[in-house]
């Protein structure tokens, strides 16, 4: 084999090897290019999908906001020419910057897509706007139906009979003995004093019982009970006019009632319960929250009023001038031609002269719009004779026309009914018998006496 042949063979081998190497390199480059194209297509598709989701979320949020505004305005949403049509969803190359409110993300938009790249997702068809039904107004809570006054009086007897108010039973047990000794009569007087009947009224009752032939000597229990009932009714006042002034012929309209009393007597609660009592009688009521010192007082009064659809006039801020609230409440009641205006005032100690003077100011300011027909003093029956000092000071400061005894059912001091009337010369008109919303009743003397003797 000569040299030329060897050189030719080597040249052929070299050329073949070069061709093989070039083919391998070209194949690898093609694979890398295809892989890059696939990766770019997948990234673009993912970005387009994310952009479409962001656009859909933004569109849903805008629709929700528009619907909410329409509900608040109480108007019907009807598509018109001025309503902006929803824009089509962005394409794969421009989806990211087109999403409203979404953060801008870098997208290889400048690089031309390969000829056989996956087609971009088509935008969803734009829905045709349809006029929705007129949004229903939020339903008002159904007003409660308060219990009638007559039904409450029947419950008065039952509650007193089952309460811890035993002074009537204690008196009967002593007086029903066959022969009463001097010690027995002393026990009678002590029982009356412990029940807060008062010293003068207790002495008067004992003297009358001593003179009653049905009790002295050998007594029949039925006669003793009848005699004791008559004597207690006389002391309580069976013929006293206990009607609220609003219920009397020729009453002003609106008739104004101001609630007064010391802290903790249940004054605001009593005002709310009184409103329910008037609503049960078919009267239109407005309440004024003139207790601006206690943060929760106005809220508490509004809660009571909302249950029976009674409007409450209140100040926008705590610590406002109570007289200004009373003035606005009287103006509102006059404008609405209401039957009754109930003004709740702040609780105060009877020994604070400036606070007591403020009550007089509330009355004077209210009377610039409407005459004040009633001032009700709310007394806690459990305080007994301690409440008498309070009552006297309030009577001097603003003039009291009646008394409301709260918490009477849980008191052994029912005799305060007798003593407070004797001291103030005004009747007990209402009594609170419990924590229920309708546990405020007109005071019925016979029901009260029968209850404590049951």
Automatic annotation (TrEMBL):
EC category: hydrolase
Similarity-based family: Belongs to the GTP-binding SRP family. FtsY subfamily.
Keywords: Cell membrane, Cytoplasm, GTP-binding, Hydrolase, Membrane, Nucleotide-binding, Receptor, Transmembrane, Transmembrane helix
Residues given in the record as GTP binding sites: 261-268, 344-348, 406-409
Alphabetized PANTHER family for the sequence: SIGNAL RECOGNITION PARTICLE RECEPTOR SUBUNIT ALPHA (PTHR43134:SF1)
Family annotation (InterPro entries): AAA+_ATPase (IPR003593), P-loop_NTPase (IPR027417), Signal_recog_particl_SRP54_hlx (IPR013822), SR_rcpt_FtsY (IPR004390), SRP/SRP_N (IPR036225), SRP54_GTPase_dom (IPR000897), SRP54_N_sf (IPR042101)
Lineage top rank: taxon: Bacteria
Reaction equation(s) it catalyzes: GTP + H2O = GDP + phosphate + H(+)
Enzyme Commission number(s) from the entry: 3.6.5.4
The organism's taxonomic lineage, starting at the top: Bacteria, Bacillati, Actinomycetota, Actinomycetes, Bifidobacteriales
Subunit note: Part of the signal recognition particle protein translocation system, which is composed of SRP and FtsY.
Gene3D superfamilies the UniProt entry points to: P-loop containing nucleotide triphosphate hydrolases, Signal recognition particle SRP54, nucleotide-binding domain
Protein name: Signal recognition particle receptor FtsY
Function: Involved in targeting and insertion of nascent membrane proteins into the cytoplasmic membrane. Acts as a receptor for the complex formed by the signal recognition particle (SRP) and the ribosome-nascent chain (RNC).
Biased composition (Basic and acidic residues): 137-147
Transmembrane segments: 6-25
Membrane topology per record: Peripheral membrane protein
UniProt main location, coarse: membrane
Start and end residues of each SRP54-type proteins GTP-binding domain: 427-440
